[in-house]
Fold these 3 entries.
Entry 1:
Amino acid sequence: MSDSHRRTLPEQDTIFALSSGASQKAGVAVIRISGPHADVVLRHLLSAQDVSDPDPELALPKARMASLRKLFGGISSTSVDAGAALVGNMKEILDQALVLRFPGPRSFTGEDVVELHVHGGLAVVSAVTNELMRLRMHPLAIPLRPAEKGEFTRRAFENDRMDLTEVEGLADLISAETTEQRRLALRQMGGNLRVLYDSWRAQIIKCMANVEAVIDFGDDVDDDALDAMAPLLRDLEAELSAHVQDNRRGEIVRSGVRVAIVGAPNAGKSSLLNALAKRPAAIVSSVAGTTRDVIEVHLDVAGVAVILSDTAGIREETEDAIEQIGIERAKQALADADLVLHVVDVRQTDGASMRAFSDTQSDSVGVVTVFNKTDLSSEEERQVAAATMQQLGRAKGSELWISCTTGAGMDAFQSAFETRVRELLWNNSSGTGHECDASPTAVITRARHRVHVENAIHSLRTFIHEFLEQNNLPLDIATEELRHAASELGQITGTIHTEDVLDIVFQDFCIGK
Ligand code: GDP
């Protein structure tokens, strides 16, 4: 493990990739080039003559100014054979492109970067990338190659343009599908976690320096330095502890609120799921493999990603091995749920069906009960249902009535559902969640962060209890606890890292990012 990733890198290859999505026919495609030879490569592309060394006087666009330029390529550009490619000095126009230069270190990667905003057609993109491939074979041996997955961002990290939490924020932003995922990712990419963890780490390191002074000067130094440190470390420990007690809000926003639909057979679970899935924001998928699969629907519920799973598979025990797998999966979906949607046939509220799922359901998970099949029910049955709900301790008038067949009550149900989802994340019944936005609090978004923060808390506690309070530890061993706490926080931001961790973080990226 290195205490710094600011290693001196050997001269880097210049890399290139299509950085915009690889869709068939986009209006614009962005090809990004990064590395010490970015300008040399650009000079070749802007030069109409196929010469080994383009006119060094050829005017490059001003830094960070968009410039409309013709890009040229060797006529035999489909060939990567060096000899063939350099026959004659004629070139053809590949495209008219907007060209931008970002000289390092003021660029995304910290290196010289060139962006080519070309027309988005497949032929244009491949003509330009083929030309870049051809330049690899150039007699001047420009060290140019296609970028690997996440390599632009990895360079940004290695050149100190981003810390690991910002890298993760960027990965999340690229894959964000809902408003809240976007907001969360944007804040993280903006450095809110980096600032928080760096400041905690700096405070611990300051305390360590004080302790080390005591060690160095032995008993000559009075205990004042240690005494002054105690409240500081206690406050810090309290802050870190509050940070982890967040109901996994950030992780849930990031990965989606897991909602399990439960209820008696034929209550209408699949019908409700289908009704919700018909909404434009839904994607239906099934966990592959069995006939009794758990069906998952991904919904955008008022800006929050929701993964709704139908646990229709939870029925009586079965001899059928395949069905048994389905049952296990359904039980797992229920165990993983952040919220339970309990569907009840309004005509069958006699208790047994109402209690059917309560055995499997844990107290910590919220439940939304919805009465279905109102189109078939009598007034009397609805009264019985409402009374049963009150027996179960629910507020009068809070019942939700729907008919999956006619669609009656679906809007009211949807808005109640939205409120519950947002409450789950922000304990806020107004359903706006704006306090989350306004809050300067940075939230944990990954298990990776949580593990390190918890380890840091453990070390701080050991130092406070075993050394400051009980005096059970010798000073030098106690200091190790502080060092460990600082190191744990440093691992979140990547100040301290191993290659393995980097590989895991960067595997979320695709080529061009
Ligand atoms: P599940 O076993 O809980 O998933 O229940 P299904 O969604 O498969 O529904 C069972 C039966 O009830 C099906 O025949 C549905 O068409 C029917 N059904 C579901 N919801 C309603 C409703 O609101 N009104 C009526 N009349 N029938 C419904």
Entry 2:
Amino acid sequence: MRKTVFSPPAMVTIPVAGSDERFAVRRIFCAGKNYADHIREMGGEDTSRPPVIFAKPADALVSDGRDVPYPRASKDVHHEVELVLALGKPLRDASEEEASKAVYGIASGVDLTRRDLQTQAKKHGGPWTSAKAFDHSAPIGPITPLDGALEGLHGRICLRVNGDIRQDGDLAQMLWSPLRLLTYLSTLFDLKTGDLVFTGTPAGVGPLQIGDAVQAQVDGTEPLHFTMTATV
Ligand code: MN
């Protein structure tokens, strides 16, 4: 291999439930506005448009039960519990059948959002990068491998803060199903093995404080636990 001028960073990997092997992450794509009740709580009405697509860097992931430092540059960081799809095959202009066979596994994740910066960005028509793609913005639980192809998903998706339920929905409420979302994403990007897809959040998003213990769980996956600690 050619010498590099700096040591390359370590590959980002996350645990696989029931295995010593880890999942090597390539990129993180995210869908916003994929549950009608969340669109309404954010002041929107139009549920007919395709979900908003944005991305986070792979090294925004926080796994293995690590704490999440409260993000700097924000005073209003919100939780958004989401089903995460982990791709085991590439997809380009894929059919739903091809997409169903490309999902290696699923996980519980939280799309942490600097809501104050997102509100400013929306006002000025600017990008969501600083609101969404910051360091430690993507806590994730272990990936549960699927037995076979991904079928239509339903089941509870919920988030607790210090034991109190804040978000409680069902995967069947997604406006765009996981397979429709993958099909759409595969028309925009050459999806690759190792890519993760956060699929949107149900209603109940709200602020987190330093010291909060967060539990996020999507049916069929291992729960995700993390604590918000002081800003570093
Ligand atoms: Mn989200």
Entry 3:
Amino acid sequence: MGRDDCIFCRIIAGQIPCTKVYEDDAVLAFLDIGPISPGHTLVVVKPHVRHLYDGDSDVLEGLGSALGRVAGAVVEATGADGCNVLCNNGRAAGQLVDHVHFHVIPRRQDDGLFPHWPKFEYEPGQAEAIAQSIREKL
Ligand code: 5GP
Ligand code: ZN
């Protein structure tokens, strides 16, 4: 199931070391090697799946229960005020490792790490048109 050319498959297989914080049948969670803040953790699904929307639903079912648990532990252990939970999908969204993973990033009030994202206003009818297109794909 693992791929030799995938760094996260190799970590899951035990071929490359990591600083592990949690493991079950569905996920492995370990500290990011290039953290944004202390305790920055990656929750990685075990099968090699590139995008969140590529896998079978059971891949994500196992992930769901672990993700909240790990995020809560990270916040508590680091004494953070909150956390961001992010999943980058595709290069345009900043995905560098093509194996589904969630970043748990501890945040402190006014840490200035990154600001809230910019926003715009929909043109009349645009929101409903986009929502309709999404509904048709579900
Ligand atoms: P992405 O941009 O794909 O969402 O994030 C990939 C993350 O994986 C980066 O934050 C990067 O620091 C982390 N990373 C890449 N290679 C390794 C590694 O070998 N070990 C660990 N612990 N983290 C890694
Ligand atoms: Zn992989």
